[in-house]
Each structure stands twice: as C-alpha cells, then as structure tokens.
Amino acid sequence: MESIEQHPELETKEPMRRSFQSRQRGTSPRCEKLTVQLAQDTYRFDLGCAQYLRIRAMGGLFFCVLIGCACVAIAVGILLWKSYPHDFTLYLKWQDALLGLSWFIAFIALEGAVLVVRFLHALHAGYTQGMVTLVEESAITVRDLSAENLKNIFWIMNSKFWCFVAVLVGLLPLMLIGWTLHLSNIVLAIFTTSIAIVLSLGGLVVSITATSFILIGCVGLVSFCRKLASSHTYQLDEHATIRIDNFALAITYPGATESVVDLNLLAADDQHQLLLLLRKRWIDTEQVWSSSLDYSHT
Question: How far apart are CA 62 and CA 67, in angstroms?
Fold first, then answer.
C-alpha cells in the first residue's frame, strides 16, 4: 500500500532553528544530534550518533561478509565448471547440482548486499534528514531504521537458500538415474531405474513448487527494497492510531502501511521532547483520540 503523501508544511523553506538543550553535555560536538525545528510547530528528530555508528558498522560488516560469500561461491562454481564434461544426459549430474548451488549462493549473497546498501543509504538519510518529523497539528513522518532490518534481510536470504535446497532434493531421484543406469546387473538396473523415474515425478512437483516460491520472492523483493527503511507520512486525524509501548512507536492509518519505530534510536533528550509533543497533542485532542491512543512512558 502507498503511504500518505507528505504534508506541504514538511517542505517549508523557512530558516532552520535548532532547539538546544538547557544543560551542557559531555559528548563530542561532532556526534551531538539535536532536535531541528524546521518551522513553527514542525520538529525534526535525527537518528542518534552512537546508534547510527553502531548500526552502520553492523551493516558494513554484513555487507563485507556477503561480498566474501559471493566471491567464494563464484570461485567454487568456476572450479566445478572446469572439473567435468558438459555433454547432454537425460539425468542430472551431481556436479550440476553443486554448480547450481554455488551460483545460487552467489546470487542471493549479491542480492542481500544490494539490500544492505539500500538500508545503509536510508540509515544515512535518517541521520542527516531526520528519522521522525512531526507537524504538531497535521502530520508525522517516520523511518524504521532499527537493526531488525538487517535481520529481515538475512531471513529473506535464508528462506531462498532452503527453497533451493528443496529444489535439489526434488531433483535427487533424477541424479540417482545416472547411478542406476551403470549397474552391472541388467535386471537390477532396470528395476532401480524404474523406481528412480517414478520417484522423480513426485520430486519434480516439489522442485516446481519450491522454484515458484523463489520466483515469487524475487518479484516481491523489488517492492521490499523500495520500502526498506523508507519514510512514511501519516495525517494526524481521527483515522490515525498511535501507540507507544516500551519506546516502540506504532502508527497505523487506513490504506497505508503500518510503521513501527524504535524511539531508543533517538538521543535521550530527543526521546523526551518527542514524547512530550505527542502527549501534548493527545491531551489537546483527548475527546477524539482517547479510545485509539495508548501512551505509555516508563
């Protein structure tokens, strides 16, 4: 589903004014992230410096591991390609299965690397352009920049890998035919080959089903990549539902994608100010929001 279009007030070109804390901090000025007031009643909350560096390091390490896995898989595939003849047969060679597995591992590793780069780009945008932007009386724009996005990328790759393993398991009877045809006993060769052919029919069903899941995942990955850590804007009216539980901000709106934002990624003072602003709006519109807004601050 498409998110609500950004409110015009979020694109104001008025001079930016920073809201400084009332007390001095011992943090480095370079890493100090402060609430930015874009205009009257419009506030931008950037991703905290420490959280940004931590998640960026995790993403960078994950990216390097994926590139390394892709390189190793490609190298193994090249060695396998050169290790056996590629003449046509009616059965599947076990070398072909290993070759396909190595190329597929390289494919999903590169696919995951692209997703990590996309997430790191959105992470940098959240650090420099804001993770949460609040227009007190009209709209809120949020990005989900938690490290859980990296876990989601891993589990997508994991699911595709095991789907491909299911494809190979379904093709296993076809690989057995290459062994049964070379049995010295003619009767035994015919008997075992017949069994392998029958089993291969059922195996093909498993392989086709698993392949369809892989193809569906590849198509859905385009939409997932586009929405990964992207910003979503919601109108603050009677249709919006906002819940805050254990510093997790959940926003739902009819016809829009639900967003869950970890407020722990903000600096401590930014957390406090954002919660105060949300609480102020809740109190100001208590008659409309009392049944849908669950505010908890521990």
Answer: 9
Kindly list the distances between the CA atom of residue 202 and the CA atoms of 94, 166, 177, 284, in Å, as whole numbers in the listed order.
Answer: 19, 12, 15, 64
* CA–CA dist 270, 161 (Å, integer): 41
| 232 pLDDT tier (thresholds 50, 70, 90) | confident
Phi, psi dihedral angles at 253 (to 5 degrees):
-150, 135
Q: Are 132 and 261 in contact (CB under 8 A)?
A: yes
Q: Which two tokens stand for residue 191?
A: 């008997």
Report the C-alpha gap between 218 and 224 in whole angstroms: 10
CB contact set of 5 (below 8 Å; sequence gap of 6+): 233
For 120, which DSSP code? Answer: H
The pLDDT of residue 257: 83
CB 111 within 8 A of CB 157: yes
- Give residue limits of the domains in the chain: 8-169+230-295
Q: What are phi and psi of 34, to 5 degrees?
A: -115, 155
> For residue 151, how far is the Cα from the chain centroid?
7
The residue behind tokens 């892989």 is 214
| Residue range 112-158, pLDDT digits in tens | 999 999 999 999 988 888 888 888 677 888 888 999 999 999 999 99
